[in-house]
Amino acid sequence: MGDERAACKNLYGAFATSLVIDTGGKRINVKKGKKPKFRVPVNGSYVVTVTFTVADKSNAGNTEPGTTWFRDTAGGFGRGQCSDPVKPGQSLVHKFKVGLPGNANPEGGSTFDVGFGIEGNGPSFDWTVIWSGKTKK
Question: What is the value of pTM for the model shown?
Answer without folding.
Answer: 0.86
